[in-house]
Amino acid sequence: MNKMIYKGYAARIEYSEEDRCLIGHIAGIKDVVGFHGESVGELRTAFEEAVEDYLTTCEKLNRAPQKPYSGRLMLRVSPEIHAAVAMAAQASGKSINQWAAEAFARAVHT
Q1: Among 38, 47, 48, 60, which residue has the fewest nearby CB atoms (within 10 Å)?
Q2: Maximum separation of any 2 CA atoms in the chain, in Å
Q3: CA 101: distance to chain centroid?
Q4: What is the DSSP string of 22-76?
Q5: Angle between helices 96-108 and 79-91 in degrees, nearest 10
Q6: How many of the other CB atoms lie within 10 Å of CB of 87?
Q7: So where are the chain's domains?
Q8: Are 25 and 36 in contact (CB under 8 A)?
Q9: Bridge partners, 9 (sequence order)
């Protein structure tokens, strides 16, 4: 999976057939920040400008910018799944956290 990341913010990118250009939004925050470009280079520049503008606007409004995801994730699963995960992690010589992080990484990179 290709990613466009700048200052810790990631881009969610789509192609607009109607506008015949690439359209992006900063992912992982509740504020809506969009940008567009006709090429990957233009999109990259627009993305970086959008992040900078977002940070500047937040500063002018004396408001903390929303941060991308922290990396902390809490899940609720059935006791049976929890037990199976614990056994799989232990069998591979890893903590549940290490095992789950690797399983998530495999899932999103395939």
Answers
A1: 60
A2: 53
A3: 15
A4: EEEEEESSSS--EEEESSHHHHHHHHHHHHHHHHHHHHHTT-PPPPPP-S-----
A5: 100
A6: 10
A7: 5-60, 79-108
A8: no
A9: 6
- Write out the chain's pLDDT in tens, 110 residues: 467 999 989 999 999 999 999 999 998 888 999 999 999 999 999 999 999 999 999 999 999 999 877 778 888 999 999 999 999 999 999 999 999 989 998 888 76
Please report, as a single letter, which amino acid is at residue 44.
R
Measure CA 71 to chain center: 10
CA–CA dist 84, 81 (Å, integer): 5
Angstrom distance (rounded) from CA 3 to CA 99? 23
5-60 fold: Double Stranded RNA Binding Domain (3.30.160)
Distance from chain centroid for Cα 67 = 11
